[in-house]
Model the fold of this input.
Amino acid sequence: MAAVNPAAATALCGLVLLSAVAGMVPARAQSAYREAPPRLSEADASEQKEGKGLAAPSPFAPQAPGVNAANIPDGPPAEPGEATPAVEQIGSHPAHDDWPAYGRDTDATRFSPLEQITPRNVGQLTRAFIYHTGSKPAPGQANKWAAETTPIKVGDGLYMCTAMNDIVKLDPETGKEVWRHNAGVKYASIPYAAACKGVVYYTASTVPAGQLCHNRILEGMLDMRLIEVDADTGKLCEGFGDHGQVNLMKGMGESVPGFVSMTAPPPIVNGAIVVNHQVLNGQRRWAPSGVIRGYDAETGKFLWAWDVNRPDDHGEPAEGQHYSRGTPNSWAPMTGDDGLGLVYVPMGNAAVNYYSGMRSPEENRVSSAIVALDVKTGSPRWVFQTVHKDVWDYDIGSQPTMIDFPGQDGPVPALVVPTKRGQTFVLDRRDGKPILPVEERPAPVETDVEGDPRSPTQPWSVGMPRLGLPDLKESDMWGMSPIDQLFCRLQFRRAKYEGEFTAPSVDRPWIEYPGYNGGSDWGSMAYDPKTGVLIANWNVTPVYQILTRRKADGLMPVDDPSFKAGGGTEGKGALADTPYGIMASPFWNRYTRLLCSKPPYGMITAIDMHTRKVLWQHPLGSARANGPWRIPTYLPLTIGTPNNGGPVVTAGGVVFVGATTDNLLHAFDAKSGKELWNDVLPGGGQATPMTYEYKGRQYVAIMAGGHHFMRTPVSDALVVYALPGNK
Done:
């Protein structure tokens, strides 16, 4: 065992589980217009009594103070409207020097045409500057920070959001702060994480060039405000919404601060801002709605709503009503298609992720699916589901990428959809039909969760290489010593495991592999349209969990006065309104905090989209900052750590990625996959980097803010690199 001891250093790697899993009650369709949630059966109600204070508050109860953070009057319910005609935005055809959108362009390719930094000189990169956002936990505050920010660069401005939603414009050469808009977000509004993935640059069609708010910066916020500020001054755009702000809690019904939030930059498609949001996992079945909405980019006026259980009603709810509660939410970055007038929405699950028995047919149809919405009406044009009746929290966390797929008869407008399963689906974005073959394969169906039968088949993208490893075996269990290995083998034998899609169990723990942080999560992929190469970093980490009310007794949902931080966001949850709670953890040795399955836990892969062959693939991340009992080993052994945050690829032939729990920014040769350079960051690099050029010099930037979920060091540093000198 001594020979594999160093590899043990990666096993924990900061992996802490999100909460989410659900209870069981007889299946019923949810109604959007019920004045109270459906009643439990007598047997279920008896189980429910084991928990205290878990009954749902009335959805008509008033929202708690602070939920409408800007105190904006609701006004009367709005009917559907049409967006102000828009001008073409710079993200459609970015300037050579710029990175004007979260994914660099509206296609979300994360590809830059810059060529100054190459495999030959990347080893000479040095720090050009570090900018400190000032956003970190204050004394006495629990660490919920996870910045995840990718800045954008347009002209002479580098724009970014802090973890707590302040918007900042920096000088791209020096990092000097030009202006700062203080958002005023309060700590109580932090949901699972203090995170802001990015801001949006928008050019108005109704305000002439040279006037205030001709060019704007748009941000969706943790406290559910949508704001626009002038790109040159940082001042609120008075003509947008209520003095520059829109209250996104309107029509949501009962809620509390931190239950609902925005962390992803909303796309603007043909003048419509399309807004999604996350709903905190593991709380209650009748959580606030996952409704998707459209707003006018010029005025902030409501345009339409897509409410899963109110499919034919695209206006705001009538007085005294609310959007359907507990419906699937979408929290990942969406992708907009101006040409087709569509927005591609990566969907999650209904409010109790690991139980599907209470979902309506409409909810089951769109859970863990890509839904293409018409941006004029909010109506779905097509739906493609990546998991049927998902009870594994395989929601889609990545932003889909639009490419011209190299078909036999010429380019096909395609959508590349990464998933947590490591399945990559390639769809015709006009109609959602698979371009590459997808097979329905048999899946395990045995379960003792009553009233919630599993789907007998699941979709597999057989036309693309799988970003995953073989199913677990007992021989894959390992540890620092024979005793550790024996402990993990016993745990493996005790658990229910039937391969991928092992169904939840009540009588014993079950193993989910890959876990809900598996495959490609929110970091997304990068695509080089010149070479047709797709770059992806991904995870293979197992989850060990059990569905039980007794062991979860004492956990309270976030809207209960007795709620305590951590009670439903990392590995355990009250799952109120159901007779069960969830207890979950990484599948690890609880004494050493090393994962029971052998490494690697994280990989990086390059795929040729012309041939759909893997060009290169290897573990991503070293053992240097990881080890047993959370003690760093400082061993530079590349064995593959869990990772969150995506890659970028350049025309210079370099791939940049942070993501790993070794706190490094890595550079790889795009052709061979060889690691060419790395640098130790001041905090965890759980953010997707970006690159830009200014005054003839190419820069590479990454937010090294750390991530509480990954257990990496918290920092407020944006680190920017360049080659020495002016060239």
